[in-house]
């Protein structure tokens, strides 16, 4: 976060009291006009740079108001965290960059979550779309249950499928476990393009707990990337060309995930 500098008002010299100055003049009358002029000059308050001249030792109203505003100026308020973005189709450039299943995801500081919701039972309805976050507020995984599926009816069955650019972080995993434990008729399947910090013991323990809570964890295969492109991306009817090492990277992550969940 950029440093801020405090705004400082222009310096001012306080006005001298006229009564006291008058007494000094009465006792020590100058001998010539030159000394009077010097003494009168000293009696005037010092003018700060950029300040309007004063009349009869009094600051003009405009200058006083300006100084008061500067003196009590407050620092600008910090902007709130980026809001969760929700939509139907992702920009094609963002998809190709954010979902690329590289091992080192430098510059990919967002989580994209494409979702399908199939509700079975009375008044059932399906939902489809995507969420995007900036990792500054609620993450997409948590925002899904706040914005897309905030209500839960135990008389219904919910089949929820996610295609995410990266697997959940430990904090989101803990919340997902809590939700799945409370919502007995909800089934969640997560297809991830990449594994988030899979080397960390905390992440590995969280993924195991998530699987134990009933969540199906999968890595995105080449065919999953093509499906996501056709279903969730504003592709302008263009065919999706997989990057060269897509299959190799999928196999790498699939092996890591299998080792964690065994």
Automatic annotation (TrEMBL):
It catalyses: cytidine(6666) in apoB mRNA + H2O + H(+) = uridine(6666) in apoB mRNA + NH4(+). Residues 67-210 form the CMP/dCMP-type deaminase domain. It holds the Pfam family APOBEC2. Its cofactor is Zn(2+). This is mRNA(cytosine(6666)) deaminase. GO terms for cellular component: cytoplasm; nucleus. Residues 1-63 are annotated as: Disordered. Its EC number is 3.5.4.36. Probable C to U editing enzyme whose physiological substrate is not yet known. Does not display detectable apoB mRNA editing. Has a low intrinsic cytidine deaminase activity. May play a role in the epigenetic regulation of gene expression through the process of active DNA demethylation. GO terms for molecular function: cytidine deaminase activity; metal ion binding; RNA binding. PROSITE patterns: CYT_DCMP_DEAMINASES_2. Belongs to the cytidine and deoxycytidylate deaminase family. GO terms for biological process: cytidine to uridine editing; mRNA processing. Residues 20-41 have a biased composition (Basic and acidic residues).
């Amino acid at each position: 976060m950029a440093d801020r500098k405090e705004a400082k008002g222009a310096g001012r010299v306080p006005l001298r009291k006229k009564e006291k100055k008058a007494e000094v003049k009465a006792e020590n009358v100058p001998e010539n006009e030159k000394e009077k002029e010097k003494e009168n000059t000293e009696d005037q308050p010092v003018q700060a740079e950029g300040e309007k001249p004063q009349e009869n030792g009094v600051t003009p109203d405009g200058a006083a108001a300006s100084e008061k505003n500067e003196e009590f100026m407050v620092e600008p308020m910090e902007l709130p965290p980026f809001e969760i973005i929700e939509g139907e189709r992702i920009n094609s450039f963002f998809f190709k960059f954010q979902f690329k299943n590289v091992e080192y995801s430098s510059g990919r500081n967002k989580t994209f979550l494409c979702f399908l919701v199939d509700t079975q039972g009375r008044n059932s309805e399906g939902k489809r779309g995507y969420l995007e976050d900036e990792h500054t507020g609620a993450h997409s995984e948590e925002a899904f249950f706040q914005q897309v599926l905030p209500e839960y009816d135990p008389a219904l069955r919910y089949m929820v499928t996610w295609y995410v650019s990266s697997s959940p972080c430990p904090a989101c995993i803990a919340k997902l476990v809590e939700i799945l434990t409370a919502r007995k008729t909800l089934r969640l399947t997560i297809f991830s393009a990449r594994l988030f910090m899979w080397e960390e013991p905390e992440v590995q323990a969280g993924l195991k707990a998530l699987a134990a809570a009933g969540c199906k964890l999968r890595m995105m295969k080449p065919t999953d990337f093509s499906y996501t492109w056709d279903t969730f991306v504003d592709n302008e009817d263009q065919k999706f060309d997989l990057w060269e090492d897509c299959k190799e990277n999928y196999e790498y992550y699939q092996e890591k995930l299998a080792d964690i969940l065994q």
